[in-house]
Amino acid sequence: MSRPPFLTLPACARAYRLATSRGEFAVHDAVPAGAGGPAPTVLLVPGFTGSKEDFIALLEPLAAAGYRAVAVDGRGQHESGGPREESAYAQDELARDVLAQAQALGGSVHLLGHSMGGLVARAAVLQDAAPFRSLTLMSCGPAAISPPQQARTRMLIDALGELDMEGVWQEMRRMDAEAAPAEPLPNALGAFLYDRWMGTLPEQLIAAGRQLTQEPDRTGELAEVPLPVHVVSGGEDYAWPVPSIDAMAKELSAARTVVDGASHSPNAERPAATAEALVRFWDLA
User: Fold this and answer.
1) Which residue ranges does the record assign to the AB hydrolase-1 domain (predicted)?
2) Which domains are delineated in the chain?
3) Is the pTM here over 0.90, yes or no?
4) For 232-248, what is the mean pLDDT?
5) Taking CA atoms, which of 62, 75, 145, 158 is between 20 and 30 Å from 212?
6) What integer pLDDT is reported at residue 2 of this predicted model?
7) 10 close to 69: Cβ distance less than 8 angstroms
């Protein structure tokens, strides 16, 4: 679960609901100051248990570099509503949402997906690459997550089938405390993480969790798409082994960035260095 370093939107950004052909989605939209014309647009797709706030620390540096940065809550995530059937969260459905979001933003969008969001972004590009200028896969591997994380995710899926969201939250906190006691979170961050969890639909989490444990390797398919690709990760990653991310990048002939000092969420853990790497890639894409 990504933890944003802060929660207050920068002055360059605003929160609203983006209207698309597939419904409305809650977004944070950061626009460069004094742009003489339309700025190139970046669409930021969060991962499992995540939300648009996972990218909040990237918004200001990306806008300062001349990019319009739009971070979105996917269907059933946090402040975006969704149906109460698991079938609504099949990967193809989520990919169609991303395509609709890109089209609503005018197309020719740089697409970035973090973790599970990377799998969804990949699926969107494989459905239709036309609305995109480039694809960035951040902290995302070629196929299913690592075996230890598969086991943990299956436990979560089972718990979501037996308990309500409050009960699962309390059980996760208990297990985390037993595994690695940590200092208490700041009150505002702790309240946000709780509210985000409670606002996310269990059907979305169950469907996404199953995808993470069953995803096939589609690297070969993606390599056939004529789109610039950037693969970004921290130096360590608990969800996918970094060597597997390296191998995926090589097969894709992708630009590769390893953000020193970061783990699974370089966007939240090392936002300045991450933004610099992203801008370098997009400036050339």
Assistant:
1) 42-277
2) 13-143+217-284 (3.40.50.1820)
3) yes
4) 97
5) 62
6) 86
7) no
